[in-house]
Amino acid sequence: MKKRIVNITATLIAGLFATAAFAQTPAVPAKAEAKHTKEVANAEAKETKAVVKADAKEAAVAADAKADVASAKADAKATKAKAHHKASKAKAKAAEDKAEATAAAAK
């Protein structure tokens, strides 16, 4: 009887080891690993492309801002010149009117 229990126990243990050996999940197939690597590389490339695009956009905005500032400065200069010209004209007219008034008062 003892021998029979030992044999049954040995068979059960051997069965467990055999089941454990064959029930293991296979390693990640090479094809799936390659696909994963490709997807990661594509994601990194897209990220890099987006970063470069954002940097270029930022540089363009900065260039536009500089152009806008230069344009604004030119506009301001023209406006100041126009205002100065108008003021000079008004002063000349006022001086002329004063001279006429003084000449009329002197008569």
Structural class: mainly alpha
**Could you give a short account of the major beta sheet?**
none
Quick check: average pLDDT?
A: 80
Topology, number of strands: 0
User: Roughly what percent helix?
Assistant: over 70%
Which percent band covers the strand fraction? under 5%
Q: Give the oligomer, counting copies of the same chain as homo and different chains as hetero.
A: single chain
Number of helices: 2
Overall shape: it is rod-shaped
Radius of gyration: 46 Å
Describe this structure in words.
The protein has 107 residues and is mainly α. It has a domain at 51-107. 92% of the residues lie in helices and 0% in strands. It has two helices and no strands. The radius of gyration is 46 Å and the shape is rod-shaped. The model has no long low-confidence stretch (mean pLDDT 80).
Question: Which descriptors would you attach to this protein?
Answer:
single chain, 107 residues, mainly alpha
Short structural description:
This protein is an all-alpha fold and 107 residues long. It has two helices and no strands. It starts with a helix and ends with a helix.
Secondary structure layout plus pairing:
Layout: H1 2-22, H2 30-106
